Amino acid sequence: MKDAIVKTLIAVEPNIVKELNRMGDRQKCCFEIYGFDIMIDQDLNSWVLEVNCLPSLSSSSMFDKQVKTQLITDAFTMIGIRGYNKNDMRKQQEVKAAKAVANGRPVYEETEPKFQLSMKLKELELLAGI
Predict the structure, then answer these.
(1) Which of 19, 27, 65, 121 is a Cys-bridge partner for 23, taking CB atoms 3.0 to 4.6 Å apart?
(2) Is residue 67 within 8 Å of 60, Cβ to Cβ?
(3) 74-117: per-residue pLDDT in tens?
(4) Residue 23 — φ and ψ, nearest 5°?
(5) Cα separation of 73 and 57, whole Å?
(6) 110 Cβ partners below 8 Å, 6+ apart?
(7) How far apart are CA 82 and CA 124, in angstroms?
(8) What does the pLDDT look like over 37-73, one tens digit per residue?
């Protein structure tokens, strides 16, 4: 399968490079995910059926959801965005606050956003005249 994917990408490399060059200075700030549909015959040969430039990330089953969640996680990791656990983050903030209090420094608490997403969506709808 790896060879089939690599050969397919080599075949369209000029088009990919052309589109990348259109990005100018922003080309280091982008990436693209391709979805390969590959068939494997009885001799275990791989055949590329199609390549999707904009693969669907919606899930039709738990397995599909797990695969696509891992795909997005890997993509974000490759570009340097790392996930975090909210509970771990909260504990770290509590430890920092306790150290600040112990050292006699003021503690600054983060406040919740003053708006809800639904309010923002309504504002956008009003602006768009929907």
Answers:
(1) 27
(2) no
(3) 888 888 877 777 788 888 888 888 888 888 776 665 544 444 44
(4) -75, -20
(5) 12
(6) 93
(7) 30
(8) 999 999 999 999 999 988 888 888 999 999 998 888 8
The sign of the torsion formed by the CA atoms of 50, 56, 60, 65 equals positive
What is the phi/psi pair of residue 66, to 5°? -65, -45
Q: Using CB atoms within 10 A of its CB, is residue 20 exposed (0-12), middle (13-18) or buried (19+)?
A: middle
Buried b (16+ CB within 10 A) or exposed e, 94-123: eeeeeeeeeeeeeeeeeeeeeeeeeeeeee
pLDDT higher than threshold 50 for residue 1: yes
* Domain regions of the chain by residue span: 2-52, 58-83, 86-128
Tokens of 44: 């275990």
Both structure tokens of 60 = 């039709």
Strand, helix or coil for residue 61: coil
Residues written for the chain = 130
